[in-house]
Each structure stands twice: as structure tokens, then as C-alpha cells.
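Q: Mind making up any chain with C-alpha cells?
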Amino acid sequence: MEINFVIEKFLLIVVVFAISLVVAMYSTYAERKVAAFLQDRYGPDRAGPFGILQPLADGIKMFMKEEIIPANSNKWLFILGPGLAMFCACIGTAVIPWGQDIQIGDKTIPLQVTDVNVGLLYIFGVISLGVYGVLIGGWASNNKFSLLSSIRAASQNISYEIAMGLSIIGLILVTDTLSLREIVAQQEGIKWNVFYQPLGFIIFLVCAFAETNRAPFDLAECEAELNSGYMVEYSSMKLGFYMFAEYINMFVSSTILAALYFGGYNYPGMGYMAELLGPTWAPLFGTLIFFLKIFAFIFFFMWVRWTIPRFRYDQLMNLGWKGLIPFAIANIVITAIVIALTNNF
């Protein structure tokens, strides 16, 4: 029994890891296609039909490029930076409930790597560790642009993590749990948390853009000011790791948004579909719905990047400290008052 359990978890980890990499890889293709559509261009159309092999061509190019390590850099930290960024990006999927339990014969298989009762705290711990990859890479490069970029990234992440953490408190008051599986399970049908926490969702969404260094919050790597920032000295697959980590972070952020506020694998008519498809295929259909929600958020990330111009750094910090944090505190107070009045009556 223990061996079967280990094999099941190992296979699930491999599948989730592979899906994360494939989604990140084809997010680069989708981003270029979305940008081309918004700018009335064609985008990649040479490698394969409609350019669908472009991510593979980019990956081969990254592997084949010459690897350069600056002479005056800290070699070990220079190598550690992109690896840490990639590692922290990938481990965030460990507590995501991808669907209901699948019934195969008399065996029940959960579609979740691990269910911890403090899943939200785990997610925030992983998010807070991700910036160390940027910090280490920027400092170890021994380049003034990289150093400035890493300082910007650190201050930006600290500022927006506070607002993000405060926005989640309102959600915790409503759901009364820190387990992601329980939070998703409570949103059965269309009882989505976005209807109970609309302000918290907006704050969390804005902070997600900042935490993933996506435009208009990409102050850590803005080419016009910092010449690609912390990645300026990187080449070959180390540069690829940083780029992949950003897209995996976007995928994980979209997954968390869909799970916390839009019901995850829940959808209207789940009971009817369970009777129609049975205990094996119905959970997989819910997983498909979950991924459709995730892809919708990924498209939104890309849409915003190619629509809204980048903030100035003072505007970025003012929005975090003078805008989002006060609104997040107000959301906590309002939620607590509403829950107290509801319980009393």
C-alpha cells in the first residue's frame, strides 16, 4: 500500500511538473501571438503550422547558445540565482487541488500532490522565496544595472506582499480555513468567493501582477532604464530559466486566482455531469474547466501587458503603500463587521 501511494504521488508530481513546463513554454508563443493580434501583426508563423513549433526552436536556441559567466562575478551565486528562481516557481503547484478525487474501480486517487491545512501559508512562503533568485542573480552579476534591478525587485515584492497578505485575510474570514482544498470545495456550483470578496479579489489580482514582475509592474527588468535588469549578464539556459520562471509564476498565479476566487474545478451543473460521466470522467471534466479558467487569467495577464504602459517607480510604490494597503485593511474591517452582524442575526 505504501509503495502504491508513493508511485501515485510520484506520477502526479511528474504530470504537474510537465504541465507547468508545457504551459510556460507555450505561454511564450501565446504571448507573441496575443501581442501580434493587438498590434495588427502575424506573430510567429515560420516554425511549424501557424508557428506552433516556435517554443521548441527557442528552447533549442537557448541550449545551443554560448554560456558566458562574467569574470568578476560570484560564480556559485551566479549559477544559483536562476536555479532558485525556477525551483521556487515550480514548487508552488504542490498544494493546488486540480480536481475532485477520481474513482477507478475500488481505488480513490486525489488530484492533489499534498493537502496541508495551511496551504495558503505555504503559497505565501513560496512567493516570498521567489524574489531571492532575482536578488542573488542581480547581486552576483557584479553589474550596476543588475544590482539596481535586484533592489527594485526586493522593495517591490515586500510592498505588494503586504497588500496581498491583507487581501487574503478577508477571504479567510469568509471561508474559515487555510486549506486550499477546503476553500475550493466550499465554492461548489457557483458559490464563488469573488462574489463575497470582490475588493479582496481586485487587490490580490493587482498584487499578482507585481509579484510576477509583469507589466505594468515590470520595474525590475525594464529595458529602457536598466537594460534588462537582473538578467543583463545572463546567457544560454540560465537566461532561459529566468524567463521560464516568470511564465511559470504567471501560470501559478492564475491557478491560485482561479482556485481562491472562481471556484477552481467547480462549475454549475456539477451534479448532473457527475451522473452523466461517472466518478472517473466527471472529475477530469472539472479539471478541464479549471484549466479553462487558468488560461483565461493567463490571457488577461498578456492583454494587460500589451495594453497598459509601465508605471514610474514612485507611482508603483505609492499604489502599493497608499492605495492597496489601506483598501485591504478596509476590506478586512468591512468583512469582519458583515460576518459579525450576520452571526448575530
About this structure: Residues 2-344 form one domain. The chain has one domain: 2-344. The longest strand covers residues 99-104. The radius of gyration is 21 Å.
